[in-house]
Amino acid sequence: MVLGSKLFHQTGEFFHPCDLLICEKFKGPGDCPDDDPCDAFVVEETERGFQCRVEVPSPLYKYIIGKKGETRKRLETETRTSISIPKPGVEGEIVITGQHRGGVTSARTRIDVLLDSFRKKQPFTHFLSLALNQPAIQEKFLQFKEEVLEKCSKDHGVSSSLFQNPAKLHLTLGTLVLLNEQEIQKACDLLQQCKEDFVDQITGGKPLTVEVAGVEYMNDDPAMTDVLYAKVHMKDGSDRLQVIADQLVERFVASGLMLKEWDRVKLHATVMNTLFRKDPTEERNNPVPGKSSFKERESFNGRNILKLFENFYFGEVQLDSVRLSQRFSSDTSGYYATCGQLFLS
Fold it and tell me: Ranges for the K Homology domain (predicted)?
């Protein structure tokens, strides 16, 4: 269920709220009788009719208002309701009022649909990360960069602008669109809940020791590489890191804070990315591997890099926390600013 919406995202399809709502009378998709609708949201009866409130981040107000207020006017006219929206930049609730419960419910449902659609168009603002920027790893990464440029700089497209910022080396578990402080707090709270529910049991209260070794590419043709990443695996050979990553994403998807992209999290640390070539400020990661919305890019020939550095050893590191990291930011260490974190030990 997506924040601000009662639409569910499942296998790439979207359903009407009454298809998948869980309530006391819900038996299965389509089991919401017209004369006894499910409680998709709270509609309060007042002295003047009915009222429904919905929390909406202020950056999304404009989509409900529309150009010159046309969207709101149309909603009000067609549902016979009045829709009150806070002033731009002021966090609050949209309040729908009307003489008839059905009109208020209809307006709320249509607002949810709009919010759901436009939220998906927002660029991600935060991501769950595991930092790999310990000094020893950074040193080995800089050695990797130096040797690649020394041995492969004549290969098509290979240049120093492709390489990750060593201070921001990391694993990305999933991306989020968090549009106000309330949503950021919800994500932080969920991280702590995950720690209590399953993370501590998996880690035994100890950091996870991983090895970063070997390089691989994302696309089909190594001669036309866009992303080169270092492979990450548990030193003890277990799948504990993969299990934690998958369960975290599953929990965040279920909460509506994250959209499901893949069946499993791909554990990888981007070391070279053609996005960096055109925009030095672009995120030094590949949060959604293979996503078609990437900017137009100039690929590089990675054949020699893959051959010469197939087993390059970046080092061993202890992972001690999962961070809620803010995109386009830096802390005093050069890593992304942290809004909250789940300590593994």
Answer: 48-116
Residue 324 buriedness (CB in 10 A; 0-12 / 13-18 / 19+): buried
In this predicted model, what pLDDT tens digit does every residue of 224-280 receive, in sequence order? Answer: 999 999 999 999 999 999 999 999 999 999 998 998 888 899 999 999 999 998 765
Split at pLDDT 50, 70, 90, the class of 98 is very high
3-state class of 20 per DSSP? helix
Q: Which helix (H) or strand (E) holds 142?
A: helix 135-152
Is the domain spanning 126-343 CATH 3.90.1140.10? The answer is yes
Query: Residues of CATH 3.30.1370.10 domain(s) within the chain?
Result: 9-119
pTM above 0.70, yes or no: yes
pLDDT tens digit sequence for 148-195: 999 999 999 999 999 999 999 999 999 999 999 999 999 999 999 999
- How far apart, in whole angstroms, are the C-alpha atoms of residue 83 and residue 64? 9
Indicate where the chain has its CATH 3.90.1140.10 domain(s): 126-343
First vs last C-alpha separation in the chain: 31
Beta-bridge mates of residue 129: 172, 323
Q: Please name the fold of domain 9-119.
A: Ribosomal Protein S8; Chain: A, domain 1 (3.30.1370)
Chain centroid to Cα 221, Å, comes to 27
Q: From start to end of the chain, where are the E strands?
A: 9-10, 13-14, 44-46, 49-56, 81-84, 92-98, 126-131, 170-176, 208-217, 227-234, 268-273, 313-319, 321-326, 338-343
